Amino acid sequence: MYKQLVASNDRASVEGLSRQVLDPTSRYYGGTIDPGTGVAWVNHTTGTPTDMCYWGAALVNPDSAFYRDELLLARLLLATEFVLRAQHEDGSISPGWTNYHSPPDTAFVIVGYAQLYHLLASQDWAPLQQVLDNMLLFLKRTIPVMLTGGCHTPNHRWVLCAALGFLYELFGLEEAVQRADQWLAEGMDITPDGEWTERSNGIYSAVSDIMLIHAARLLDRPQLLEPVRLNLHMMVYLVHPKGEVVTDYSGRQDLGSFHDLSPYYLPYAILARFDKEPLFAGMAEWAGSALENPGGCSVNVLVRMLLEPELQQPFEDSAALPVKYEKILNGDFPRHGYLQDMEKSGHQGRIYHSRLHTDFGAPVARYRDGNTSVTLITETPSFFALRHGAVRLLAVQLASYFYPGYVPMQKMIKLPEGYHLSGEQKKGYYGPVQDELLPQTSAEPVSPWYLLPHQSRALTHEQTFRVETEVQRTDRGWTLRLHAEEPREVMTQLSFVFGREGCFTSGELQAVGEDYYLWNGGNLRYSCEEDWIELTGGELGHLAATVREAKLQDNCKVVLVNFMTPFDKMITITLSPSMIRE
Fold first, then answer.
1. How far are the Cα atoms of 296, 358, 519 from residue 100, in angstroms, in the given order?
2. Is 227 helix (H, G, I), strand (E, B) or coil?
3. pLDDT confidence of residue 578
4. How far apart, in Å, are the Cα atoms of 437 and each of 169, 442, 450?
5. How many CA atoms lie within 13 A of 72 on its CB side?
6. How far is CA 460 from CA 312, 433, 438, 485, in A?
7. 581 closest CA partner among 471, 481, 473
8. 470 with 418: CB under 8 angstroms?
9. Rounded to an integer, what is the distance from CA 522 to the centroid of its chain?
10. Which of 183, 194, 185 is nearest to 227 (CA)?
11. Could you tell me whether strands 382-388 and 372-377 are parallel, antiparallel, or unpaired per DSSP bridges?
């Protein structure tokens, strides 16, 4: 794997050189252009520091075609000068996508920049000195913003702690340790089963893991590795057979998107060696097989391998990964109690530029049997997802005109051969404000709606919509049985979201848009490559093509089943026999 990374790093170095701005009159002189925006940024993903890590790793590595290449060194120097010019007077950077003068985005760059600095500084090569001076100046300038800056999201705290740890290592600043301890005093936002607040298996869980690994080492806080271990153990059960990470219930932008295991390579590889854990070694090998390049600035795998040469070596002992299991995550987590305590926090349910992530710790069930992989989910629009060989049923979602919008399942109970899920929504009306509570403006010519004390209105005519779902395994696949009674005559819609790569080969489908269909009967077969699944239960109980506030996914194939309350709806899912119970 190391040799492959060296080769891909060399290719990335060449590609980055082609994007570097060499016009001295340009505001981006020395920076590398982000192809997506046409702008040179200082950020940890598509920014110039990422290309600098490629170039630096090539320059100091005897195995690279660019080892001590003076032209590449000159280009790296130009890049360091661009980064210094782009740095704000307060020491921060603006990544470009949002978050201007951003402490956490500055912290991401610090984590990558500091590792590259250490790698370059370890070389006995005098021509590197100006590059090192510029990089150290950038890092020194970030000290004020790291000692005073805040963040938006849960994982940002651990990125800041890692950055503060690197600044402590470089400059011996006790203030950096003190600031990190302030963040750490807030406690770890992880369930006993290993789920981070943001439930972002595709992106931010791996971010929290690697950042806390750095913080544990740099701040001498070995206890910070414990939550990382929890998450890495959990992730063993959150990968589909072909290496696709389960993102069906993420609280961030990876929701429902394809992500592989590659971001977890460093956390698994580092702790596999530190803990002598064969299971982590097996997961590291799986994650490493997905690495197409060394990665972004803050998580460049090759830079870390050159700093820790033992990471270049094969693992002494790696365990076979489980391919048949049934696992409930957060089944015993006291989530309801935490939610009840939220009123005591004082924020009244409001948080700026982020969200409270009240779905944290909601139950999730994972089932795998060879090349069949199923996820059952609560507190998200989708309650069921399935992979069967090449077939991807990305989501099964229930929506209604009651609220209107999706009806998330809130509770999950294990059954002998499946699960019982239930969701409940309430909606009522609000009476007039009592005279003694009315503001002065209510008697004036203009009485703004937003000045009325709406919290004082009496609730009237509240209705409850309760849906129960039984998901059962069968010898040939799965059944979904949905049941609801009241209120009557509620238009309801069940959506099946499939990967765009497959095709429908049977079923009575009525197109209502590109890749959107109403299914009114017949056996629905969806095929991809040699694999297929077949569904029964199509119905056209009403003609609505969508449900208000229930946005359907783009770049997918969606089949809709329409029915009315009361309903007792049965859907059967049959799996192609070549893949069943291998």
1. 20, 27, 47
2. helix
3. 59
4. 59, 10, 14
5. 23
6. 67, 13, 19, 21
7. 473
8. yes
9. 37
10. 194
11. antiparallel
Stretch 416-439: mean pLDDT, rounded?
97
pLDDT at 582 over 60: no
Q: Which bin fits 452, alpha (ψ -120 to 50), beta or left (φ > 0)?
A: beta
Q: Which of 400, 217, 265, 419 is CA-nearest to residue 327?
A: 419
| Beta pairing class for 516-528 and 556-564 | parallel
Counting the structural domains of the chain, the total is: 1
Distance separating alpha carbons of residues 159 and 105, to the nearest angstrom: 9
Distance, CA of 318 to CA of 289 (rounded, Å): 14
How far separated are the first and last CA of the chain, in Å rounded?
30
What is the mean pLDDT of the segment spanning 233-247?
A: 95
DSSP state of 5: H
pLDDT in tens, 152-191: 999 999 999 999 999 999 999 999 999 999 999 999 999 9
What is the per-residue pLDDT for 252?
Answer: 74
At residue 551, the pLDDT reads 87
- Does any domain span residue 534? yes
Other Cβ atoms closer than 10 A to 413:
12
CA separation for the pair 337, 298 (Å, rounded):
37
pLDDT of residue 97: 85
Residue 581 has pLDDT above 50, yes or no: no
- HSE on the CB side for 169, CA within 13 Å? 19
As a whole number of angstroms, the distance between CA 109 and CA 93 comes to: 9
Contact 228, 155 (CB under 8 A): no
Report residue 238 as tokens.
């959150």
Q: Any idea of the CA torsion for 139, 141, 142, 146, to the nearest 10 degrees?
A: 130
- Residues in CB range of 554: below 8 A, 6 or more apart: none
262 in any annotated domain: no
Establish if 400 belongs to a structural domain. yes
Please report which confidence band the pLDDT of residue 328 belongs to, taking 50, 70 and 90 as the band edges. Answer: very high
Residue 27: other Cβ atoms inside 10 A: 12
Q: Residue 290: phi, psi to the nearest 5?
A: -95, -5
Structural domain contains residue 575: yes
Q: In this predicted model, which residue has the larger pLDDT, 565 or 350?
A: 565
Q: Is 134 left (phi over 0), alpha (psi -120 to 50) or beta?
A: alpha
CA distance 267 to 286: 13
What DSSP string runs through 360-424?
A: TT--EEEEEETTEEEEEESSSSEEEEEEETTEEEEEEEEEETTTTEE----EEEEETTEEEEEEE
Going 219 to 222 to 223 to 228, the CA torsion angle's sign is positive
Q: Give the tens place of pLDDT for each residue, 97-148.
A: 889 999 999 999 999 999 999 999 999 999 999 999 999 999 999 999 999 9
Tell me the one-letter amino acid at 383: F
pLDDT at 430: 98
Domain coverage including residue 517: 370-426+465-579
Residue 57: closest CA among 105, 11, 111, 93: 11
| Residue 254 token pair | 């990876």
Average per-residue pLDDT for the chain: 95
